[in-house]
Amino acid sequence: MWLYTDTVTEHFQNPRNVGEIENADGVGDVGSLACGDALKLTLKIDGDRIVDAKFKTFGCASAIASSSALTEMIKDMDISEAEKITNEDIANFLGGLPKEKMHCSVMGREALEAAIADYRGLSLPMAEGDVICECFGVTDLEVIRAIKESNLHSVEEITNFTKAGGGCGKCEDKLEGLLLQTISDGLKVVKASQKPKRMTTLQKIKKIEDVLEREVRPGLKMDGGDIELIDVDGDYVIVSLRGQCTSCFKSQTTLKEFVERKLREQVLDTLIVEEDK
Ligand code: FES
Fold this sequence. Notes:
This protein is α+β, with helices and mostly antiparallel strands. The protein has helices at 6-13, 61-74, 79-82, 87-93, 102-120, 140-150, 155-162, 172-181, 201-222, 244-251, 254-266, and strands at 26-32, 37-46, 49-58, 77-78, 131-133, 138-139, 225-233, 236-243, 272-275. A hairpin with a 4-residue loop joins strand 5 (131-133) and strand 6. Helix 4 packs across helix 5 and helix 9 (201-222) packs across helix 11 (254-266). Residues 133-135, 164-171 line the site of FE2/S2 (inorganic) cluster (FES).
């Protein structure tokens, strides 16, 4: 089961800008029903400004939330600004996405690029690459771009961001080949067969407890507060704050950011800290 942020849940339950703009100035149609995710983004553009954006999507909660977030982000935005939006920006707007669902934010970014290209009468170079994953229709250019932009280090991460490799698995060797190819671009690539051993949940919990004890608790206790680890579910670290910290955690994001930064530096760089409700 995935753990979603409140923002993801809210956008999934109350998606904004659902529908299709008639006589849209730009249309971005990406994914396919056969692959399990599809997104159609339509834009109304006045001058250089996106004055309206609507979407229709077929996909999971993350796909709906990512599409809804994207439309909120780009409305009333100049095209020159909108085209700088990355999939990370979409995920950040939502307070993060489970790493296995990052491909939903990538689909949003791709739909935006396709819609802007359509408005300009251009075709996207990514679509002209060679299809490397037949199951999900992902091209080599899309994979290489994801590796470079998101600094991916394994086939598993490629699957999280592009879905390539998430079906029959026949393309895994090709994906690994593309990873190695990026070595010349100066990226640190870890072959799937040489991946560092995955941390067990118990090891992860012990490391998190250790960091909380050494790096976080002493400072909090000086202010009369405390922090307790409640649960670890995948990348989500659920904590409970006591005393004065309870209020400061709610009133400012700096404490959450501080704890998250410490855990990311010393345990795993994908961890997300949430307060127990
Ligand atoms: S060809 Fe890529 S998962 Fe099947």
